Amino acid sequence: MKKIYAILTALCILLTISACSAGSSDGETGIRPYQLSEDQKEILEILGISRDIQIISFTAPEDAQSLEVSAYRLTGGGEWDDIGGGKISKGGRDVPADALSGTLSIRFMEDLTIDFNISSAGVYSFQSEPVPNSASITASGGVALDSFQEIGVNSETPVVIMAYGNIASIPAYSLEDYYEPSKFDGMDIVLAVTMEFSDAS
User: Fold this and answer.
1) What is the Cα–Cα distance from 114 to 200, expressed in whole angstroms?
2) What is the pLDDT of residue 26?
3) Pseudo-torsion of CA 67, 74, 143, 166, nearest 10°?
4) What is the pTM of this model?
5) How many independent structural domains does the chain possess?
């Protein structure tokens, strides 16, 4: 239990530090992998989660009123089934009316839940629903956002995909495969995380 509290505390500190320097220094609006400092990398390595977590910096377009993060599981019928996520909005108790920028951390847990922390004028935490699993998983792997990407308003964009299977190794995928679910045929479990800036609060 103490270890869990230590991890959560350290992660919140890391995300708060990240939020202070998040966003694009050149004024670009969009998303990009957060560039960890050496100290931040060391914290994640000490906690043993450096390979399990993705951190994304975001700066919303001016007309965006909210950020929604969604988690999906690919069904046997080739459809993405919503399994949870979270949303923050400008104004009110969430985010100041003149800002929607910060960092998003995404961590895939051993029980196949996904933990989210959105850091933007505060830290907001969410978790996806558990994913039932009767398969014997021998390999896992995925793909994540690896460069800056501009995102318009009301455009849902995949940022991480993880695949699990009873196979020797996971094939190489791209984020564009999110739009062609048949690419994941043969995988036992496929999870995806998307981000969307919306003009609705």
Assistant:
1) 25
2) 54
3) 150
4) 0.84
5) 1
Separation of alpha carbons 14 and 102, rounded Å = 12
pLDDT digits (tens, 9 = 90+) for 126-157: 999 998 887 788 899 999 999 999 999 999 99
- CB hemisphere CA count around 89 (13 angstroms): 7
C-alpha span between 151 and 63 (Å, rounded): 12
Torsion (CA) 178, 184, 190, 192 in degrees, nearest 10? -10
Give the pLDDT confidence score for residue 134 in this predicted structure. Answer: 76
pLDDT, residue 148, reads 96
Rounded Cα gap, residues 71 and 10, in angstroms: 24
Q: How far is CA 14 from the centre of its chain?
A: 16
Tokens read off for 187: 């995988």
> Which domain, by its residues, includes 15?
2-198
Ranges of residues in the chain with a pLDDT under 50 are 1-2, 4-6, 8-9, 13, 16-25
